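Entry type: protein chain
Record version: 2
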Amino acid sequence: MLRREMLKSLAALALVPASGFAEEPGLQLGDHVPFDAESVRRRAMELAASDYAPRPLIPESWRNLTYDQYRKIWFDGRNALWAGSDKPQRVDFLAPGLYFPQAVDVNVVENGTARPVAFDMGAFDKTDKFPEVELDATLGYSGFRLRAELQEPGIFQEYAVFQGASYFRGIGAGETYGLSARGLALKTGDPMGEEFPDFTAFWMETPQAGAGSVVVHALLESPSCTGAYRFDIAHGDTLRMSVSAEIFARTELSHLGIAPLTSMFLFDETMRQRFDDFRPAVHDNDGLLIHNGAGEVIWRPLANPLTLQISAFSDNNPRGFGLMQRPRNFRDYADLEALYHSRPAAWITPQEDWGPGSVTLVEIPADQEIFDNIVAYWRPSAPIVPGQSHRMNYLLDWGHDPAPKADMPLRVLNTAIGGRPEGGKIVTIDFEDGPLVPEDLERLGIVLRSSAGSVSPGLVQRNPETNGPRLAFTFKPEDASLIEFRAQLRLDVAPLSEVWLYRWTTA
């Protein structure tokens, strides 16, 4: 979905002073309807027992808005939900149209009842360049964003947004939006095409004064399944979402993606020669990190191949996985607008045994940074048959480096690949420094394997900038068009570094 530039423009409205809305009408709420913890689950189960019914489209005049026209209308923060109250959250609602051709239902929950938030053009500001549009009963908001006092009292800053299909984003305090998460992924990378479930309705629980979190319930619908979701969202330097969900199958779900993350990777030092760009690198995230059930810590640098690539890392009861952004200096990107150095990483921690399956990485060719071309998710081995349901609970942390640190081996800081004048390729892998790194690097053992081609033994030297070890090796592909590499540093036979995995392709 091409939402990156649109969301960046909306971020300019993220700082809104706390105030009332004396001259504004405010949001209008509908009639009270009973609501409890099982309401969304019952609704999802009922819907799964019937055929899928698509939601109506909003009027064509809204769907035909151009990107520039869509930017001419915005929510007036003075009309935010709970504005002017002692509630610790503010909720802004987002206009329909452009990439969002269907409305979502939004409800406010308090004292055991839910009230729908009515669509109101009076809650928006717009310029005189915004065109005339039709107003009818199909209209509604396309999503919402959450704001709280993240850094300064009285200043409510945006920290999460739910908008489009089942997409949502989060950031830690002071960060810039980057990667997205989704409620569910179906048939990602499938030759027959991907299916995108939608969050069609939300219920927001009214927080108590002083609460540092907010609870959002969501109903998911698609031709293949329905789902009931609960998000407990706590903002901070690291934003934590506790996600509980149950999926109900309408058809057999054999290619299911749990806790999917979607990101952008255009280029870095492994493929710099393909892009004529003043910047050293362009990406929201640069690697997939996996803590597998066997206790290994795996680092897989991301790539932007010329053909679709799908990698499956088989596992049983994974401890966690996520998309990281390890280069954190401005000079790593030199981009004054995109601010890639301040984009968040996201980390998934299962809250129960997930059984056998695979962490799956999909890398899609891209020639511009507006395309989200990276997807990572957990794919369970067993399908979900019609009439059955699947429960899942996990933590989703957004922040600078949200992966657990306890007993973590040396992290990979950077990977670079380039040609050699005498033929072949040279690969350098920089590892961070650590208390266990010996002064004499000759004590380190090197594990280096490749699936094809010829590979040199490898050499470890100290990087004077990081003070950590650098592993360098050369390889010649020979007749191979695809090579899988595995490398690790060891000390006295024990693992010292993460396991570095890389797929090299000619295409």
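Comment: The longest strand covers residues 239-249.
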